[in-house]
Specification:
This protein is α/β, with parallel strands linked by helices and 369 residues long. It folds into 3 domains: 134 residues, NadA-like (Rossmann fold, 3-Layer(aba) Sandwich), CATH 3.40.50; 119 residues, Rossmann fold (3-Layer(aba) Sandwich); 80 residues, Rossmann fold, CATH 3.40.50. It is 44% helix and 15% strand. The protein has a 6-stranded mixed β-sheet with strand order 7-6-8-11-9-10, with helices on both faces. A 4-stranded parallel β-sheet has the order 13-12-14-15, covered by helices on one side. Strands 1-4-5 form a 3-stranded parallel β-sheet, with helices on both faces. The chain is globular and about 65 Å long. It starts with a helix and ends with a helix. The N terminus is likely disordered.
Length: 369
Amino acid sequence: MSLLERLSVKRNTLPEKYMTMSEQEMVSRIQEIKDTLGESLYLPGHHYQKDEVIQFADDTGDSLKLAQLSAANTKAKYIVFCGVHFMAETADILSNEEQIVILPDMRAGCSMADMADIYQTERAWNSLQEVFGDTILPLTYVNSTASIKSFVGKNGGATVTSSNAKAMVEWALQQKERILFLPDQHLGRNTAYDLGIPLEEMAIWDPISNELVYEGNLDDLRIILWKGHCSVHEKFTIKNIEDVRAEMPGVNVIVHPECTFDVVQASDLNGSTKKIIETIEQAPSGTSWAIGTEMNLVNRIIKTHPDKRIVSLNPNMCPCLTMNRIDLPHLLWALESIMEGEIINLIKVDEETTHFAKTALERMLNKSI
């Protein structure tokens, strides 16, 4: 980005005019700008986005896939990332210096990522080093801030996705005796348990009280789970499973591994967003499914597979509220700002943070299966 472009960056609130435009006006204008910008614009859309946004996505997928596609699309000068803040950060980390990453609404964050900040993490690391010495390797879910990815990369660790978490935990335990898993305790617990590590060898690190919550022998401890969670996936319950099995005999229950341990254990299958989508695609016609993941995606799967009976595991579930901040008015605002030469909501990760965060990401890409 040139100096002139950097100086023209703005972070304003949504102008009033976008709130008074009709949906059709916005749809037409967005398509017009996409046609005008052509290959210089790339618009990735996360699976959890609203249909009104997904209709304009050049690619859909999970956060890491979209970041990788953004980096690979070297013809695109502007990457308007329809997701949440940490996803746009990852796109900036992996893309080149000339590419400009924009988040349509800066309020589109992630409550899970926000549950582990760099100050809490450094404080926790110092405390754990005093107790366990150099026996811990940090791993972080890609659903984390750039600063946490950077911390992990600087301390020899790597990122993980819900698809490759098992491979990465296995790799990490070959490096050190213990793992500090950030920021989602449920993905960490479910993954470690699937690898044969008993719950008795897992502890919780509480960043608020700055203490290790564990009643066993410290020498037996192998997995230290950060006390964080996904606000959407934690809402699925055992009662939801009991209710859907009573209402739909023979139903197959599939959930995301960000769900709680008891829910994952009571389900028939669990897996990443990609696995959930592929499982439903490959399922025979006439089968019944209850899906425990974000509602926008579930509704899209239901529409795509009318030959199967599909419901949300929690009928009262709301879509991810922060992901839903990306809407037509904000998307149009971001695109018109590009046309006017005044970049809004620029996502730019500093050089040092980028270096170590990229190290963590590359370790995963090199080590995972």
